[in-house]
Every structure is written in structure tokens, then in C-alpha cells.
Write a structure and sequence with these properties.
The protein is mostly helical. It contains 4 helices and 2 strands. The protein has a two-stranded parallel sheet.
Length: about 100
């Protein structure tokens, strides 16, 4: 890849971490379609090392959800499905 692009991406990442430290946690890429997942993994080596350390690829909590309404907090939501979803998100954040 182009070194200028990598330097610019690294500088932007560093500045973002300074300005928005609360956003510096892990970034989860959940349930990506196979083609998109392959493309993201292909380009991941171009990201600055600090960004790569925070990326996590997971088959995540939405894998068993057919309808987002099921995990909503509204009256149409399913309390058990929501609880399972939130527990799975918590487990990902702890790792």
C-alpha cells in the first residue's frame, strides 16, 4: 500500500484517540457476510497497528436474531431474546 495513505490514516487515528478517548475501545465487526468479511480481512494489514489491535471479528450476538424487533425494548420485543442478546454483547466486551 501507499505509505502516504498509511501515514495519513495513522495520524487521523492518533488524533481521534486524543480527541475522543472514550471511543478508543475495541471495534467489533459482527456477522459480516463472507465476501465483506474477506475484503475487510484483506485490507486490515493496511490499518495502523493500534487499530488492528482493537479490531475483533466475531460471529456475534445477532447470529440467532431473525428480526431486530425481537431484541428491542418495546412492547413488541421478546424479553428472553433481548436478555440473551445483551448477555452475549457483555461477554464479547469482557474478552
Amino acid at each position: 500500500g501507499d505509505a502516504t495513505f498509511r501515514k495519513a490514516l495513522s495520524a487521523a487515528s492518533t488524533k481521534a484517540n486524543e480527541l475522543y478517548p472514550s471511543l478508543a475501545g475495541p471495534t467489533f465487526l459482527l456477522n459480516l457476510p463472507k465476501l465483506l468479511g474477506a475484503l475487510v480481512k484483506l485490507f486490515t494489514p493496511l490499518f495502523p497497528e493500534e487499530v488492528r489491535k482493537r479490531l475483533k471479528f466475531e460471529r456475534g450476538p445477532l447470529k440467532d436474531v431473525d428480526d431486530l424487533v425481537d431484541i428491542s425494548g418495546g412492547e413488541l420485543g421478546n424479553a428472553d431474546a433481548r436478555e440473551k442478546f445483551l448477555n452475549e454483547v457483555d461477554a464479547l466486551l469482557e474478552n
